[in-house]
Amino acid sequence: MSSFAVTPAEGEAHPMSQDRKVKIGMLFYVLADAAFVVFLLVSYIWERAYNTGGGWFNFKGMALPDDATSNLLLALIVLSAVAYAVAHMGIRAGNQGVLRVGLAIALVLVIVTLVWQVRFMGQQQFSTQDGTFASSWIMLNGYHVYHLAIGIFLGLALTIRAFAGKYTTERHLGLVTVGYFWYWMALMPVLMWLMMLFFPAKL
Amino acid sequence: MSAAHAADTPTYNARQLLVPSYLTGAILGIVGFLIGHWYVAQYIGVGHDEAGPNFTEQALVIGYILALVGWLIGIGAFKYPITWLLARREPDHEEDLRLAGAGQGWVRYFRFTTDHKVVGIQYLVLVLIMLGLGGLGAFLIRSELARPGALLYPPNTYNTIVTMHGMLMILATITFFIGPFGNFVVPIMIGARDMAFPRLNALSFALLVPAVVIFLSIPWLGLGQSAGTGGGLQTGWTFYGPIADQTGIGATAFAFSVLLAGTSSILGGINVIVTIVTMRTRGMRWTRLPMTVWGIFGSALLVAIGTSSFTADLFLILLDRVWNTSFFYVATGGNSVGQGGGNAWLSQNLFWFFGHPEVYVIVLPAFGIVMDLIAIFSRKPLFGYKTGVIGIMGVVVLSFLVWQHHEFVSGWAPELRFWYMATTELISIPTGLVFLVALGTIWRGRVWLTVPMAFAIAFLWNFVVGGLTGVFLSDVPADVQLHGGMFVVSHFHFTIVGGSLMGFFAAVYFWFPKMTGRMMDARLGWIHFWLANIGFNIAFLAIMVAGLQGMPRRVADYDPVFATPNLIASIFAYVLIAGVAVFFFNVVYSWVAGEKAAANPWGALSLEWQVPTPVPLENFEQIPVVTTGPYDYGEPAAATPGIEHAAGGEVAG
C-alpha cells in the first residue's frame, strides 16, 4: 500500500499560508539573535561578578559613560519603535500618509541614533584595552550599532517600498515581519539599560 | 522534471552560466581579501603609530570580511535583496526556475542555487571532502601515537593536527545530517515543493564554503614564526580563552571561520524548523512525521537556540585578539595587549553550553534515521512511535541542563557538581527510550539485512558503548580520575564515530539511490562495513584501555607503559581508515557507474520513495495528501522488499 493519496482538487495549497511561514521564520531569526545578545549580557554580568584580579575597570581618573546621553539615545530608539508602530497602525487603517510619515520618522530616528551612538562611543575616555568593563561596554554598544545598521537597510527598503505604493491594508507582510526586528532592535538597549541599573559599572 | 516544467525550462549560453557562479564568487572573494589586507597595511599598518601588536590580525579580519562580501556579490547572493530594497518587480516564474537551476545541467551545482535537492548534493559533497580531510588528520595522529618517542612531527605541529582534525570533524558532523539530508530528503518527506526559504537555504551553504576554505588555511598561517605565537594552532578544538587569545595567528582564522560556519548553521537550522512547522502537506500530522524528520527537527532546534553561546564565545575571543579587549585575558596591570581582568571560566561555560548540546545536534538525526531504517528493513511498524518522539524531544530539553559536567575538574562551582551529575545521568532515560523503540521494532521482524540496515545496527551497538561510558564520566568521582585521559577520547569517539558516523553511512547508502539515481555497490558496502566496524571497535577499545591505565590525552608522546594499546589502536585505526577509503571509492564509482536505481528500491513507505527518480524540480506533480502513517509495514504490498508502489513508482533511466 502507499502511504499517501493524491487528490488533485485540493492538492496544491499548503495547510499554512506563505505569510505565516515568513512570520515564523523572522521570529526564529529574532529569537536566535536574542539568544546571542543574552550571552553577551551574561558575559558582562559574569566579568563584573568575578572581577578577576581587580581588572573590572582601570579607572586611572577616567569618567564612566554619561548617563544623560545614554538615556537620550535610549529614548530616541524607543521613539523610533513607536513611530514604526504608528506606521503599522496607519496602513492597517488604510492611511498611506501615516504609513509613509511614520516609516520616514522611524528611519530618521535610527540614523540619528546610529550617528550619535558612534560619536558617543568615540568620546569615551577609555578604550577596549582598559579592563573588562570597558571591553563589555564597547562590545555591547558595538553590537547595538550593528543592529542599527541593519535597521537602516531594512527601514530604507520599507520606506522606498511604502512611497512606491507597495503596501495595502490587506498586503503588508514586509512591514509586519521587519517590525519584529525593529522592536527587538529597540528592546536590546532597554535590556542594556536595565542591566546597567541592576549591575552598575561601579562595584 | 515534470512535463509542465519541461516546457518552461529556460536555456542559457556559457556567459549566463558562468556569471554569476562560484567561479566569479571566488575571483571577487580573492580580490576582496587583497583589498582588505592592503587597506589595513596601507592606512593602519606600516608607518602608522596606531598599528598595535595585533595589526596582522586586523589585516586578516578586514581581508576576510571583504572577501566574504566579494564572494557573496560574485555568486549573486545580493541580487534579490537589492531588488527588494529598490522596490523593483518581484522575480517571475522564469527567474525562479533559473535560480533553482532549471536547464543548467551540472553547472547548477557550482552556482547560488535555490533547489533544495541541489543544495543537498552540494552539502553532501562538501561534507565528504571535510570528512576525508579530517580522516587524514586521524591518520597523522595515530601515526604519531603508534609508538612512544616516534616524534614524526614537532609537538606544535601535532597540536595543530589535533586541533584541525577535531574542529573539522565537528563541523562536518554537525552538518552531515541537516545539510545533505535535511535539504534533499526532508521537504519531500513532508510533502513540500522546497524549503521554506530557498534563498536563505542557498545562502546557508554559500556561507559554509568560505568558512571551510578559511579554516583549511590555518596550518599555513604564520609559518616561520616562533612556536606558540606563530604557525598553526595549539588550542585543541575547544578553543578556550585565554589560550586562544595567546596562540598564533591561526586562531584568528579559526574564530572567524567557525563563527561563519555557526552563522550558516543557525540560518540552516531556522530554515529546517520553519519548513517542518509550516510546509507539511495536508494530512501530514505531527504524529505521521517519519522519525528522520523528528530527529532533524530536534537537531535544528538545538542549533538555532544553542549555537549562539558558542558564537558569542568565538566573537569575544576574536575581539580579544583583534581589538585588545579583555574578556579572557586574565593577567592585570600593564599587559601589552590589554589591561586584563578577564575570566577563563566564562569561555568554558559559553563553549560547553553549546558544546554538549552539539553532541546531540550530531546524534539526534541519527536516532531518527536509525529508527526509520530499522522499521523499513524489519518490515514492521515502528514499535512505540510516541515513545520515540518523547525520547528525541526529551534529549533536546535535557541537553541544555548538563554542560557543567565538562567542568567538574576546572574548579568552577563545585557546589553544582551533584546537580549536573544527576541531570547528565537523567539524559540516559530519553536515550534509552530511543533504543527501546529500535530494539522493539527489530524484535520478531523479518529483517532484510542490507548495508544501510547493517550500519543502523552498528550504530546501536557502538552508541551503547559510547552512552554507557558517558554514564561513568557523568559520575563525579570517576570523572575526576578519567577526565584528562584517553578514556574520554574513546567515549567521545564511540558516540560520534561509532554512533553518528555509522548513522551517516547508513543514511548515505539508503538515500544514495534517490539522490543520484544509482545504487551504491553492495559488495564494496559490506567490505566498508566490516573494515570500519572491526577497525573502529578494536582501535577505540584499545584507547579505552590506555585511558584506564592512566594515559593522558592531548600529548604527542607518552610513557612506554602505554605502548601496546597504542600500537593496537594505530593498526586498527588504519583498518578503519581503509574501510572509509573503500566508502569514498564506492561513492565515486557508484555515482559514475553504479547500477541504475528504481524509484523505490527498498520498498519504503515514506513520501520521498513515492516520487520518480530523478526527483522532478518541484518534487510533486501535485502535492500529495497523506492518509496514513509512514510505518504501515506488514500490509501485503509492503511485506516484500523491492516492490514498486503505485504512486510515482517509475524506474530511472
Helix and strand pattern of chain B = HHHHHHHHHHHHHHHHHHHHHHHE
| Alpha-carbon Rg of chain A, integer | 22 Å
Strand content of chain B: under 5%
Largest interface by Cβ-Cβ < 8 Å: A-B, 57 and 72 residues
Shape of chain B: globular
In the predicted model, the low-confidence regions of chain B spanning at least 5 consecutive residues are 638-653
Q: End-to-end span of chain B in angstroms?
A: 13 Å
Coarse morphology of chain A: elongated
| Mean pLDDT over all positions of chain B | 90
Which range best describes the helical content of chain A: under 10%, 10-25%, 25-40%, 40-55%, 55-70% or over 70%? over 70%
Radius of gyration of chain B: 25 Å
Distance between the amino and carboxyl termini of chain A: 71 Å
- Which assembly state applies to the chains in this document? heterodimer
Main sheet record of chain B: none
**Biggest sheet of chain A, open or closed, and with what strands and sense?**
none
Compute the number of helices of chain A. 5
| Percentage of residues in DSSP E strands of chain A | under 5%
User: Helical region count of chain B?
Assistant: 23
Give the beta-strand count of chain B: 1
Q: How many DSSP E strands of chain A?
A: 1
What is the residue-averaged pLDDT of chain A? Answer: 90
